[in-house]
Amino acid sequence: MNERIKYKLSKALSLFPDRQYCTLTFLLKNGRLPDLKNPVYFNDKLLFLKLNNHNPVMKKVVDKYEVRAYIKEKLGEEYLAPLIGVYSDPKEVDFEKLPNKFALKLASGSQYNIICQDKEKLDWEESANKLTKWLKLDPYMRTREWQYKGLPSRFVIEEYIEDSQGNTYDYKFWCFNGEPKLVQVDTDRFGEHKRSMFDINFNDKHLDVKIGHENIDKPIEKPKNYERMVEIASELSKGFPFVRVDLYNLDGKIYFGEMTFYPGNCNEKIEPIKYEKIIGDMLSI
Question: Which residue, 99, 156, 220, 242, shows the most beta carbons closer than 10 Å to its own?
Answer without folding.
Answer: 242
